[in-house]
Design brief:
alpha/beta; six-stranded mixed beta sheet; four-stranded antiparallel beta sheet
């Protein structure tokens, strides 16, 4: 059953010189327990769609719906805190926080007791292959693959049902890319998360349950 849907989504914005039609009538749905890849050329609209799915903005036409309710009608800050985690290509970890503190950060925001938050963070770090002796390290002391694992652990600690990733392997080598994709796929299949990944890597996209292809702001097709 779909947890998140895009219904006739349009997104336009104005530059100094022109009106840009980033999305043009996009219809698609995303399910719990499924990993979906969104693929397309640079400028096709795939990252714009992911941003709208994450509630970072609202469509200029149509709607994004979470469990049937339009994100335009929600307190999106509160909704994202409870339901959405976004994983980025550049990891987006806090340089002044340790791996454990970065992972616990969303739980601090949720006002969870410090020990409880850090116990949960430790469990999620271990689940993605970060060793206990690495918990106290700062991001600069970790490899790219390890930093992305911490970012995924943070998403898990937050308890989000929606895991949205924008080119999560873009800064990683081939081996780490495969490992990160395996972790994300397992989140969908074993932890019943809805995982949506924007990627330019078609070899990795083929490992997902479903591929949504975007071209010129429109859905060009789907492969399952």
């Amino acid at each position: 059953m779909a947890i998140l849907t895009a219904d006739h989504v349009e997104y336009t914005y104005q530059t100094k010189y022109q009106t840009v039609y980033a999305l043009r009538g996009v219809d698609c749905a995303f399910e719990t327990g499924q990993m979906t890849a969104i693929v397309g050329a640079s400028g096709s609209g795939k990252t714009t769609l992911l941003s709208l799915l994450a509630g970072l903005d609202v469509p200029t036409g149509g709607s994004i719906r979470f469990r049937g309710q339009s994100t335009a009608e929600l307190d999106r800050d509160a909704w994202r805190l409870e339901n959405v985690s976004v994983i980025y290509q550049n990891f987006n970890l806090f340089a002044h926080l340790t791996a454990l503190e970065n992972t616990a950060y969303p739980l601090y925001l949720q006002k969870r007791p410090k020990k409880q938050a850090e116990d949960e963070a430790a469990a999620q770090l271990a689940a993605v292959g970060i060793r206990p002796d690495q918990f106290g390290r700062y991001p600069r002391m970790l490899s790219g693959g390890e930093q992305q694992r911490v970012a995924i652990a943070r998403a898990l600690a937050a308890g989000s049902g929606l895991i949205l990733a924008d080119e999560p392997t873009g800064n990683l080598d081939e081996e780490n890319s495969r490992n990160i994709f395996t972790i994300l796929r397992d989140l969908a299949h074993e932890r019943e998360r809805c995982v949506v990944v924007v990627t330019h890597d078609m070899e990795l996209a083929q490992r997902t349950d479903r591929i949504v292809r975007i071209q010129d702001g429109r859905i060009a097709g789907e492969d399952e």
